[in-house]
């Protein structure tokens, strides 16, 4: 996934406009970059394992014909774009999820690791079979699954082909020529005219100078860290994982154990979490939401901005927004470096099948992962269950960027697909924060609550000084945007539609071929690279995870029996070695060191009923 852009005109594009196109493309990804330019009667292509600003300082001036990208690395880290094959050069935004099958259809073999390579192969085969450049885009979209927003240069024909199956591509008129970008906003910024979206059969073919010879690609490679490692395997590492079966007291109604922070039981063995529970999955009439969104409907254009992680609930929420509410959405994904490639593929799969534009905001992934590594190393030195949440603090900037996108798109309404049963009091509870049983939202707000939480976190940080590192401003900023900024024009889909796990899973499987994780049966958090680690720590040390709290809420809602919940969590709490391996590899922490730190931490369930949640003693 990336931001693509370009310009073809009689004269050079002015510097300010070119810079604006480049800057906005980098918002969508900065892991690598590529450019194709035409100068002195010849095409030249460049690509690098560096942000595009770095690349532009090392290549000739852009001139009057160029196209490029700033890439969020997803599939194929060792191969950057532009991709050149069979005299076709391609820049591609998106992920093709069925590229391996397409090669067999074409009777060809890939030469690279990147999924994008199949696009020039399809175009070349189509042209060789007597097809035209005007019909080449339709052939690509016919064969591919997943988002394809593409600029394809066929220099032998003197044609540049622009096309997209989900609308993540816009063209406009500028300086007597044509300019394009992955989003409308940068074209508005540079004062382009006649901005139109490229989608489906509406491909754009642009005449460009012909070039019969092959185009050399100059590359600057510096990929020292695999940004998208596979789900690796080591029997020796996997053998380190423990899966104890603690014999402790559980609530007689739900399945919460005695190690749950601030838990107590009545004379019948029912816990206080059950006694104070207020139903969360009793939706209000759908007609209320229809009335609420009515003022936001438009004759043309996007009507709602939808936060979209590619996870189970946001995927189904998007389905409801289109098929039940009848709204035209644009989706927003924040990629902070802990989104697995599975999650990204589901974003691509859903966006393509629904024909929905997906705006990506990508963090500086290398920097974000460095922050995680520093905090994880501090945690390993003094394991403390209340401090595990600092490992996910980097994703809270999600809330900042959605406000920015509302301004850029002009779409004020946003609808969230948050599961109402995903309430995890224990994460703050292990830090010493008692549960607020009156809390109605999954994400709570309030200055006093945040100040209390941060003061307790600060006290825990003092016990492992490694937490005082360069990640602190990023962490605090994320917490601020989540908890203090005013949210407006937003509603929750599952306040009006009952959350039904089976219906959601069946719909995603049947209509979207939604991809599941290979190392677990659950569909929850499978696109989150962090979840396997923190759940292993919670389970090993405390004997339960967020799966226990989630299934307990389902019991209270009458959606599961207690026996069913116990059976489910036994499987769901099983250590997910491949995902653990992925997580520790990408943040650069030794697997053995991290797992042994968890394994040697004293268990909360090995003694009597626990009332203190102090951290484990420091270890050398």
Automatic annotation (TrEMBL):
This is Glutamine amidotransferase type-2 domain-containing protein. Keywords: Glutamine amidotransferase, Transferase. It holds the Pfam family GATase_7. The keyword Transferase applies. Residues 2-209 form the Glutamine amidotransferase type-2 domain. InterPro entries: GATase_2_dom, Ntn_hydrolases_N, Rossmann-like_a/b/a_fold. SUPFAM superfamilies: Adenine nucleotide alpha hydrolases-like, N-terminal nucleophile aminohydrolases (Ntn hydrolases). It comes from Homoserinibacter gongjuensis.
């Amino acid at each position: 996934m990336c931001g693509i852009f370009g310009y073809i005109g009689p004269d050079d594009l002015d510097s300010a406009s070119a810079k604006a196109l480049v800057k906005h493309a980098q918002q969508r990804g900065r892991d690598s970059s590529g450019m194709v330019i035409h100068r002195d009667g010849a095409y030249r292509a460049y690509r690098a394992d560096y942000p595009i600003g770095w690349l532009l300082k090392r290549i000739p001036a852009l001139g009057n014909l160029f196209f490029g990208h700033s890439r969020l690395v997803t599939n194929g880290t060792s191969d950057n774009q532009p991709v050149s094959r069979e005299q076709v050069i391609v820049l591609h935004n998106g992920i093709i999820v069925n590229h391996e099958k397409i090669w067999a259809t074409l009777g060809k073999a890939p030469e690279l690791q990147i999924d994008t390579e199949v696009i020039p192969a399809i175009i070349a085969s189509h042209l060789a079979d007597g097809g035209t450049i005007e019909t080449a885009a339709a052939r690509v979209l016919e064969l591919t699954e997943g988002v394809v927003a593409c600029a394809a240069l066929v220099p032998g024909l003197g044609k540049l082909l622009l096309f997209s199956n989900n609308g993540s591509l816009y063209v406009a008129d500028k300086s007597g020529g044509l300019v394009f970008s992955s989003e409308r906003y940068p074209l508005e910024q540079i004062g382009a005219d006649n901005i139109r979206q490229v989608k489906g059969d509406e491909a754009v073919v642009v005449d460009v100078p012909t070039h019969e010879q092959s185009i050399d690609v100059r590359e600057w490679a510096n990929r020292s860290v695999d940004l998208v490692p596979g789900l690796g395997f080591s029997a020796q590492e996997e053998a380190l994982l423990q899966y104890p079966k603690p014999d402790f007291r559980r609530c007689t109604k739900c399945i919460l154990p005695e190690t749950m922070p601030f838990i107590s039981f009545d004379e019948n063995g029912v816990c206080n979490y059950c006694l104070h529970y207020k139903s969360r999955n009793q939706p209000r009439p759908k007609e209320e939401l229809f009335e609420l969104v009515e003022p936001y409907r438009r004759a043309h254009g996007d009507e709602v901005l939808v936060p979209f992680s590619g996870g189970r609930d946001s995927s189904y929420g998007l389905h409801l927004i289109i098929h039940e509410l009848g709204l035209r959405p644009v989706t927003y994904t924040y990629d902070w470096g802990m989104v697995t490639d599975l999650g990204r593929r589901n974003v691509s799969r859903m966006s393509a099948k629904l024909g929905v534009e997906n705006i990506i905001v990508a963090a500086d992934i290398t920097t974000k992962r460095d922050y995680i590594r520093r905090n994880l190393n501090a945690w390993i030195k003094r394991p403390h269950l209340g401090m595990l949440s600092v490992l996910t603090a980097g994703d809270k900037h999600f809330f900042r960027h959605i406000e920015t996108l509302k301004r850029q798109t002009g779409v004020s309404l946003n609808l969230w697909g948050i599961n109402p049963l995903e309430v995890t009091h224990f994460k703050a509870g292990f830090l010493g924060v008692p549960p607020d049983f009156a809390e109605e939202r999954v994400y709570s707000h309030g200055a006093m609550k945040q100040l209390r939480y941060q003061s307790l976190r600060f006290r825990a940080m003092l016990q492992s000084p490694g937490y005082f590192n360069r990640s602190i401003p990023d962490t605090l900023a994320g917490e601020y945007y989540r908890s203090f900024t005013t949210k407006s024009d937003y509603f929750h889909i599952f306040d009006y539609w009952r959350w039904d796990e089976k219906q959601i899973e069946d719909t995603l499987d049947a209509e979207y071929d939604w991809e599941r994780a290979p190392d677990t049966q659950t569909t929850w958090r499978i696109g989150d690279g962090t979840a396997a680690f923190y759940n292993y720590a919670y389970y090993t040390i405390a004997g339960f995870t967020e799966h226990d709290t989630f299934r307990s809420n389902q019991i209270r809602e009458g959606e599961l029996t207690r026996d069913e919940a116990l059976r489910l969590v036994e499987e769901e709490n099983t250590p997910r070695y491949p995902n653990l391996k992925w997580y520790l590899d990408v943040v650069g922490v030794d697997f053995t060191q991290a797992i042994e730190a968890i394994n040697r931490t004293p268990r909360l369930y090995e003694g009597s009923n626990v009332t203190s949640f102090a951290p484990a003693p420091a270890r050398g």
